[in-house]
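Tutorial handout. Part one gives the primary structure; part two gives the three-dimensional structure as tokens.
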Amino acid sequence: MCDERHNGWANYETWLVNLWMDNEQGSQEFFRDTYRAIHAETDAYNTGFTVAEYARFRFADLLKHYYAEENRPDLPGVYGDLLAGALSAVCWDEIARHYADEAANDSAEED
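Part two.
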């Protein structure tokens, strides 16, 4: 489902989650700092991935857990099913890539 394109993002659900993540400066900084911390502590030894790739995968997993599991409200019936379906359509790796690219751009500007 990561191919429907909406405002430059994979689909509406991915665009919307990223919009909310970037909507407030505090939220944006929290997720940017979280990605940077994951990248700084990542050891990709024997994974077959670069540090940047492995950090991005770990960050995507963290985002999915944060939004789709840990903080998802427990709604009964059709509403809960619709919310679960919408969250399962989010392309978490695309959001993680967005934050990885921002971090890379910030590092390049500092040099």
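Part three, for discussion. The longest helix spans residues 51-70. Residues 73 and 110 are 40 Å apart (CA to CA).
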